[in-house]
Each structure stands twice: as C-alpha cells, then as structure tokens.
Amino acid sequence: MPISIQRPLPPEIRALQLELEAKAASYGLDFFETIFEMVDYEEMSMLASYGGFPVRYPHWRFGAQYDEMMKGYSYGLQKIYEMVINTDPCYAYLLTANELTDQKLVIAHVYGHCDFFKNNAWFAPTNRKMLDEMANHAARVNRYIDRFGYEVVEEFIDACLSLEDLIDPYSPHIKRSADLPANHASPWESGDGDSNGNVNDGRFPSKPYMDSFINPPQTLEQHAEGGKERAEESARKFPAEPMRDVLLFLLQHAPLKPWQHDILSIIRDEAYYFAPQGQTKIMNEGWASYWHSTIMTSHALKDEDLITYADHHSGTMATSPRRLNPYKLGIELFKDIEHRWNTGRFGPDYDDCDDMFEKERWNKNLGLGRDKIFEVRRVHNDITFIDTFLTAEFCIEHNMFAFGYNESNNYYEIVSREFPKIKQQLLNSLTNHSRPIIRIYEGNYRNRGELYLKHEYHGVELKQDDAHATLENLQKLWGRPVHLETIVEDKHTLLSFDGIEHETETMGSVSIEPLLS
Amino acid sequence: MPRSIDQDLNRFNKILKGKVRENLRKYITRSEMFGRKGRESVSIPVSSIDIPRFKFGKRGSGGAGQGDGNVGQPIGSGGQDEGDGQGQAGDQPGRHVREVEVSLDELADMLGDQLHLPRIEPKGNDNLKSQKDKYNTISPTGPDSLRHFKRTYKRALKRQIASRTYDPEKPVIIPTREDERFRSWTTTTEPDANAAIIYMMDVSGSMTDDQKEIVRIEAFWINTWLKKHYDGLQIRYVVHDAVAHEVDEDTFFRIRESGGTRISSAYKAAEAIVQRDFPVNDWNIYCFQFSDGDNWGEDNNACLEQLQQTLLPVSNLFCYGQVESPYGSGEFIRELRKISGDWENMILSEISSKDAIYDSIKQFLGTGK
Q1: Exposed e or buried b per residue across B2-19, where buried means at least 16 C-beta atoms within 10 angstroms of its C-beta
Q2: Residue B205 sits at the chain A interface (C-beta within 8 Å)
Q3: Considering the domain boundaries, does residue B220 fall inside one?
Q4: How much is the pLDDT for A206?
Q5: Is residue A61 less than 8 Å (CB to CB) from chain B?
Q6: Is residue B65, in this structure, part of any structural domain at all?
Q7: Which domain holds residue B167?
Q8: Does any CB of chain A come closer than 8 Å to the CB of residue B254?
Q9: What local confidence, expressed as pLDDT, does residue A437 receive?
Q10: If you count Cβ atoms within 10 Å of the first and of the last residue's Cβ in chain A, which end, N or C, has fewer?
Q11: Chain-wide mean pLDDT for chain B?
Q12: Which of B189, B205, B239 is the last residue of a domain?
C-alpha cells in the first residue's frame, strides 16, 4: 500500500534505478524486485517513525519519534536519505530533496540492503509480506480501540511494549525441545516451516550416510533417558525449562481477554519481525555501504559528482569515540575480509607465521575475497561476524579501544587497547542487542501462581527505576505478583511487585563471576 | 489529507501536557521556562516519556570505540542518567528533554485546576462593553466559503425524499439554492474588564538575587492568571529603597541599590500611578508588594496610614509577600497584621523559600477577587 498517492518515479531517477540495478546484478547481488518511491521529508519522518511501514496501529511513541525526527531535521542535526524495508517486493523510499548524486549513492546502497534481506540466513524466517501484515495489525488494533476505548487499549499496548524485548530471537532458527508445542503458535511455524512431523527424539536432521556421526546411538539413548527424567521434572516445573520467550509464555498462560491476547500477539509478531535487523545492524549497513562504494567509485560516479559523493560518503563513515559507527565498522571489516581472502591471509599457515616481515608481504594471490564476503553475508550475524573476523591487526589499524564506566567520576573511560578486551566488550555490547537476558523460571512460584524471572548476569546490573516500572507492566499482564532475581550492587536481589507495592529483598551476597573484569 | 502520524503526534503532545499538569507544582518554581516566553505561549522542558524496559544501568557498563587516546582517558560523561549505559555501541543518542508548547491560557487553566483557584469576578463596571462575534449559528444566506455542506446535503435529501425524486438505486442528491445553508455568527456584547497590576519591590541592599528570583516567578504566575480573566491588563513596576521610582519590567528585576528602606515611598508612588492612569471606576486594581520585611522604624505608622487611606480602598487585592532574606528582620508583616483584620482584600504571605511559592500563589489568588 503506497503511503499517499502513488507518484510515478521521475524519469531520470527511473533511468538511474535501471542502470544501477543492472550494475548491482552484474556483481552477483541477488535481490527482490525493488520499488522506489519519492517522499518528502515529512513523509520520510513518518515512515521512519513507523519503522518503514505506511500503516501502523495508532500509538503515541510513533508521534514521539516523528517529533524528534522532524526537530532534528529542521535544526539541521540529522537527515534521513533513504529507507528500505524487508519485504517482497522490497520498498525503498528516496527523499525528494536529495541531489542527483545522493540518489545514485542511495539507490546503490538500497540494492545492497535488498540483497542482504533476501540472502542473509537470519532474515530467512521473516514474513516478507509484512506490509500487509502491519496494515492488518493496524486494522485489528483500531477495531479494539473502537470497541473498548482509546485509553484502555493504549495502556495495554504500553504494557506490552515494555516487555517487547523479552523474546527469544533464536527461536525461529532452532527447535528448542521445551517449546515444541509453543512453536506451533508462533507465526514462523504456520507458514513455510519444514516441520514434517519431527518427532522429538533428539535426532538432528541428517543425510543417511552421516547419520551415525550426527546422531551417535549412545547420545540418542542418553537423550531418551534424559527425556524420561525431564518429563517427570516438567510435571513438577512449569515451564519445564527456563523460557526466554516471555511474551509467548504470557500468551499461553496469562489471564488475558481475547482482545488483549490478540494485541500481545501483534506486538510479539512485530518484535520477531524486527529482531534480525537488530542482530545484523553492522553487517547490513556494512554490506550496503560496501556496495554503494564499489558501484559508485567504479561506475556511477561522474566528475561533477565527486565532491558531493566524497562529502556524503565520509559523513556516513564518520566515527566518534563513544559511538562505534556500524557503517564504518561493517564496511571496513568486509573490505578486510576481502583483502585477507584475496591474499590468502588466513588459515594455520598464516596464523602460525611468526615473521612479521613475511606476514606484511603475505600474498598467495588466491583471489577468493569476493566469494568469501558473499558467503559471510549469507551465514553470519553481527556477533558471529565480529567473533570470526575481527583481528588484532584490524583493531590496531582502526585505532579501536574498549571503554568502561568509571563510577568514581561518572565518566566513560578508555580501559584498554588490547585486542581480546576490545573484542569482548564489542561482543558484549552486541549480545541480545544490548538488552539484558531474562528468563522465566517459574510460573507457579510458591505454588501461588506467581511469576519468577531471572536475569542472566554478565557483569552489568539493571537500571533500577526502569526495572521497577517494567515489573509493574509485567504484573499488569500476569495479574499475580511477579518477581525478578537479579544482582543489585553485587548482591543477589529479588525485586518483587504484587500490584500495589515494590519489595526488594537481598538474598545475600554471593560470589559472582562477572564476565568482564 | 490528515496523516495518521498527526494523530499519534497529538496524542503524544497531550500526554506531555498531562505530565506538566500533573507535576505543575514542580514546574512552578522552574524559572528557565520564563526565559523562552513567546507572546502567547511558553515552552516547558519536560523530561521525555519513554516506555520502561529492562535495560542495563551504567554500573559495570562499557563498550568498544574508535579514536585516539590513552588508557584512562575519559571519552564522555556518564551524564545525568541517560538510560542505556551499554548501548548498541553508543548507537542511540541520549534522550534528554523535550519541550512542550503550552499557551498561557492553558497554563492559567492548569494553575487554576491545580491550586483550586476560584474564577475572578471582575468588579462591576458594565459601562464598558465590547462586541464579540462568534460563529455559532446557521443562516440561509452567505458566501460559498462558509457553506455548511452537511446541512445543505441533509436539506436537499429531505426535499428530494419529500418530493419523491430520490432514487435509492441511484442516490444522487442535487442541492438547489433553497437547500443551501451557511455558517453564520451572532454578536454578543461582553463587559470589558480591565485590570492594572502594580508591583512594588524593595531593592535595598538586603534583597539578594535569590529573593528577586522568587518575586520574578510569583509575578509570572500572577500575570498569567490575571491575564486569563481580564481583556486588558496593564502592569506597572515600582522599586524603592528610601525613595521610590517607577521602572520598566526589565529594570525591575535587575536593579540593585543600596541604602535605607522607606516603604511608604512606594505606596506614594503607587498611589500616584493609580491617580494618573487608572480611574478607579473603570479598572480592577491589584497591588503586589514584595519585601524582606525591613523598614525604617519610624516609617511604619506612615505606611499603615497611607495604605488605609489610599491603596486599600481602591484595590481589588492588596498582597504583601515577605521573602525571607538572610539580612532582613522581617518585622514589617507584623505591622501589617495589625490592620489586616479590618481589610478583607489584604493578603499577607510569608515566602520562606522557592518551595513556598506554590502556597503563596494560592494564598494570593485564592480569594477570587
């Protein structure tokens, strides 16, 4: 559904699109059909606040984002050149006010994103017809608003959004034995999932000749035994295993009215739809930047474009100490990978070489770089990307450091320039999209129908006021008292909210092994 | 075409305004908002609302960055409390404050609601009338630009049904000239109420900037409230030490003088202004006096006499606010208490600190005069 009146693309832009599309395809980029629309800044801001979709359910937070973007734009602080959404066909929005040079850059950039959406494994389970789905969600929410009143519905949406992060972003990719029944309710399963009556006997899918290796008989036996034990245990425990998909648990077990159930499932669907974008921010932007840079510098750039292009490209790549620019990090890593695989700087031979001089000149002329980066964009997400390809040399070359918060002076300070530390900090900040990992341990705590959650502590404590407010929202949905076990000032603490007041109970300081130290 | 985002934006602004309303007590003493005063509205900084989530605090947080610097070098402040410590590698800007535009009228309403202030009944001077047009009626004639489509359509529909020219299969309605209806206005006359405010302030050496700040904040709210109730509002400022001067607004809040204090001089100056500019029959007169309560002892009797003979009889309200100062003796309010029993339009209030402004405004304006 177009955002407003469908405007035909101006002929010069259309010509650019065709030219760049052919160019992108000639490099092997593989994308859905891409539809460009020209929008003015207000429309762009509106689309951006709606996450790229023209129709969303009414909610004030979209207005807040819109307000922020419009102000940022009118004060000259920020500008959105382009926006593209993961659908089939792919919709991309161009700002009418862009110069022609910018349009070229942006169109090339968009094809990078489209290729990434289509081919990256982490996007595979997303609903490519999300445009219709979002409009459908909006229609449903509007119906509830008409029926139950704006404020009632809004209050409920607020509570749901507060818990939006509490999903299991890997669940579309793995079958967790515990949530097999759960998965049937999930949107991914109903569609194109390959659930061919997979019996849960712990057997991984495999080709026959590999079967005895992938599913060794003794492991299967153990699994069967363990299964029995687990069955007994699960009879007592509920959920049987700690569960990360809090929203799913609430959908299955919270005393929600039908309309509330529907709204919560809408919020959850959308959270799962957007999750891969958070998981692949560095790669996705890096990949798109790599391609706009490649296509522009080797083909599309005319003499008169050069200055504008250089200005805007470097603006996008700008770094600042506390803000690690995903565009910059991504593009440089892709370039580094390409270079390493072109020259053969990988594998045991290279790693074991102690001669720095030789390493410096290492070149096996393998020419595998392009193939490698295509492979990388297919299988990796940000975490595995950084984990696999960030090297000490790269950190030195790009002047990277790890920083940490110093409580004594309320400043963030550089704590280290050593590679392992930098890598660890970076991976930490990417884990779960920098949100704490929280699981449901018990849905019938103290046999009183209370909810017991546990925060998986890795060295950073929760922000207390937000944690309290979020617990209140969780309690709204659950109806019974809720508890969250976490660490507060190095002590195991149980935060509880029973619908009226908060309680904080220290469970005694326990030696915790923080990941960072 | 109204866009759906406007609905969300309006809703958001409404929530923010609601927040100002709820926490008005907190905002009352914020002087930074008056600096951004437009003609008809002020923008009030409100800490933005956000959906709470489980997120990391600053303690133990960190990330990876890029750039020069040695180990131990600070790269940025932890700020007040910017939310995500361990952000997506510092991907999101910190959320700070948002400004809400509130019109002075709305602000006055909020103040009235919060402080339960009674509406002011302007004292009778019905001789001044002003005419006001309001579009609240319908007329059979008028310009096309004011045509009331719905009413015109309804009349045409009725006519067609009555004359059996209406075909439900092909429901085309054609209005004729007789069907057309137009928006129209009625003229009402309203009593035109004018008010004059005279502020008097002691600027002798014992009044420090802190005290003046309090006066400034009170004056803002008093003006806002009275502006709501009167069509014409005139404000005059008098400063005094041993002698009094009429000054403009800017000077009033900035001037600093030393010297003794003779309050009666201010009363004389105020009296002169009333005599000169504000005929008592046509104007509602409000006098607000702020002082730290120090007066030259021998002047006290002259003050009381002056007040009772000239200002009190003509004023809707005479308010005396005594700001506590480290230097002032604060005895003048005791003098005034001697006569306050006789005059119900006299309000005395002691303002010990900024936090007391709220109550003092309530005292001053709570009489509904």
Answers
A1: eebbebbbebbbebbbeb
A2: no
A3: yes
A4: 76
A5: yes
A6: no
A7: 129-189
A8: no
A9: 93
A10: C
A11: 81
A12: B189
Whether residue B8 is found in the same domain as residue B22: yes
Q: Find, among A348, A444, A426, the residue nearest to A385 by Cα.
A: A426
Q: Does B84 touch chain A (CB under 8 A)?
A: yes
Contacts of B8 (CB under 8 A, 6+ apart): A49, A58, A59, A60, A61, A62, A63, A66
Q: Give chain A positions within 8 Å (CB) of B89.
A: 323-324, 326, 426, 429-430
User: Which residues of A are less than 8 Å from B3 in CB distance?
Assistant: 42, 46
Can you name the residues that pair with A496 across neighbouring β-strands?
A483, A503
Rounded to a whole number, what is the distance in Å from the CA of B12 to chain A's nearest CA? Answer: 5
- B267 and B157 within one domain: no
Q: Which stretch of B23-32, B60-69, B223-232 has the lowest confidence by average pLDDT?
A: B23-32
For the record, the structure tokens of A411 come out as 């400043």
How many domains is chain B partitioned into structurally? 3
Q: How far apart are CA B250 and CA B254, in angstroms?
A: 6
Same domain for B303 and B361, yes or no, is yes
**What pLDDT does B167 receive?**
87
Query: Does the beta carbon of A435 lie under 8 angstroms from any beta carbon of chain B?
Result: yes
B60, B68, B74: residue with CB nearest A516: B60
Provide the pLDDT for residue B128. 57
Instruction: Using alpha carbons, list the distances in angstroms from residue A479 to A254, A257, A495.
Output: 8, 12, 16
Tell me the shortest Cα–Cα distance from A196 to chain B, in angstroms. Answer: 37
* pLDDT > 50? residue A485: yes
Determine, for residues B64 and A328 on separate chains, whether the beta-carbon distance falls below 8 Å.
no
CA A180 to chain CA centroid, Å, is 23
Distance from CA of A381 to the nearest CA of B (A): 15
Q: In B, which residues are within 8 Å of A58 by CB distance?
A: 4, 7-8, 11
Q: Is the pLDDT of residue A264 over 50?
A: yes
Is residue B298 within 8 angstroms of chain A, CB to CB?
no
Percent of chain A with pLDDT over 70: 89
Asked if residue B183 and residue B200 are part of one domain, the reply reads no
Cβ-defined contact of B76 to A58 (cutoff 8 Å): no
Do B348 and B236 lie in one domain? The reply is: yes
Contact between A60 and B13 (Cβ < 8 Å): no
Q: Which tens digit of pLDDT belongs to each residue from A278-287?
A: 999 999 999 9
Task: Dump pLDDT digits (tens) for B261-282.
Answer: 888 888 989 989 988 888 887 7
**Quick one: angle between helices A258-279 and A281-295, nearest 10?**
50
Task: Quote the pLDDT of residue B84.
Answer: 37
Contact between A91 and A85 under an 8 Å Cβ cutoff? The reply is yes
Amino acid at B261: T
Q: What is the mean pLDDT of residues A316-321?
A: 85
ipTM: 0.80
- B71 in any annotated domain: no
What is the amino acid identity at position A4? S
Structural domain ending residue among the three candidates B58, B85, B116 = B116
| 146-165 of A, contacting B, C-beta below 8 A | 154, 158, 161-165
Residue A420 touches partner B, C-beta closer than 8 Å: no
Contact status, residue A86 vs residue A272, Cβ threshold 8 Å: no
Q: Read off the tokens for A400.
A: 């990277």
pLDDT in tens, B12-39: 988 888 888 888 877 777 766 665 555 6
**pLDDT given at position A186:** 37
Most confident among A367-376, A410-419, B163-172 (mean pLDDT): A367-376
Q: How close B369 comes to chain A (CA, Å)?
A: 38
Supply the pLDDT for residue B32: 62
With residues binned 3-state (H G I as helix, E B as strand, rest as coil), the percentages for chain A, rounded to 5, are 55, 15, 30
CB of A185 less than 8 A from some CB of B: no
Looking at the fold, whether B340 and B223 belong to one and the same domain comes out as yes
Cα–Cα distance, B76 to B98 (Å, whole number): 22
Chain A: give the shortest CA distance to residue B14, in Å: 9
Nearest by CB to A63, which of B5, B84, B89?
A: B5
Q: Verify that B161 and B226 share a domain, yes or no.
A: no
Residues of A in contact with B9 (CB under 8 A): 63, 66-67
Tell me, yes or no, whether B76 lies in a domain.
Answer: no
Say whether both B207 and B329 belong to one domain.
yes
